[in-house]
Amino acid sequence: MKIIGKAEVDTVTDVVCDVCQCSTRVPVGGFEYATLGAQWGFGSKHDGDKYELQICERCFFETVAYLKEQRRIHHMFDEDEAKHVPADRFGLVAQDVYFGDEV
User: Fold this and answer.
1) Which residues lie below 8 Å from residue 14, measured CB to CB, with a gap of 6+?
2) How far apart are CA 22 and CA 33, in angstroms?
3) Is the distance from CB of 88 to CB of 72 less than 8 angstroms?
4) How far apart are CA 103 and CA 95, in angstroms?
5) Angle CA 80–67–83, to nearest 5
6) What DSSP assignment string belongs to the chain?
7) How far apart are CA 67 and CA 51, in angstroms?
8) Predicted model pTM
9) Distances in whole angstroms, Cα of residue 91 to Cα of each of 62, 71, 85, 94, 102
10) Cα 68 vs. chain centroid, distance in angstroms?
11) Are 32 and 2 contacting, i.e. CB atoms less than 8 angstroms apart?
C-alpha cells in the first residue's frame, strides 16, 4: 500500500562563490563551481583542521594563475628541469572529461 503525503525536503538553491560572493548558477540548470579543500593530518600544526571553499570558474582560474606564478618564482633559478612544469598543464589531470565519464 502506498501512503502519499507532502514532505518538506532541503535542497541546494544556490552555490555562492566564497571569494567574489557571486552565484555559480548557470542558465542551463545546475551550478558551475569548483571545490577547493584541505584536511590537515597528524604532525601538521593545523592537525584536525578541514577547509572547504566553493569558488566560481573565474575565481578558480585566477587562483590557479596565482599559484602558477608562485611556483615559477620559487623555482626560477632551479637547474632541475623536472621542476619546470609547463604552465598550461599546471594542476591539470584530465581533459575532455564530462559528468558521468570515468577518469
Assistant:
1) 23, 24, 25, 31
2) 11
3) no
4) 9
5) 10
6) ---------------B-TTT--B-B-TTSSB-EEEEEEE--TTSTTTT-EEEEEEEHHHHHHHHHHHHHHHHHHTTT---GGG---GGGTT---SS--TT---
7) 18
8) 0.73
9) 13, 11, 10, 9, 18
10) 15
11) no
Q: How many CB atoms lie within 10 A of CB 17?
A: 19
> Over the stretch 43-96, which tens digit does the pLDDT of each residue have?
989 899 999 999 999 999 999 999 988 888 887 787 776 666 666 777 788 888
Residue 97 CA to residue 94 CA, distance in Å, equals 7
Cα maximum dimension of the chain: 74
